Amino acid sequence: MRPRALVLAPMRGPAWARLCELAEVIYEPVSVRRPPRGYPAAALAARLEEEHARILITDGDEVGGPVLDLPLIAVACTRAEPVNVDVAAATARGSPCCAPPDATPMASPSSPSRCCWR
Length: 118
Description:
Layout: E1 4-7, H1 13-22, E2 24-27, H2 41-51, E3 53-58, E4 74-77, H3 87-93, E5 97-99, E6 114-116
């Protein structure tokens, strides 16, 4: 069974096609979802649980606390600076965090949380 991915950021191209091959995708980019400023952590955790999603792709939602308490396979942030992700907490919990290749590093290159889309 493929994992479910909750995608709250716009995606297209090869990364989108590959994600669709690997996961069952629930796609709600910024332009169609609510709340307009992104989900706070508690609401996002509830949404992930409701959807049974184990992969999160976001741009501005609060990723910390209750979100990182969930058994996520990966968290990806599409922002140039992932200020909405508690990278230290994700690293401590062993949750992989990803960012676009040109993003500000989310963790040190040797950190288990560091990866980039390619």
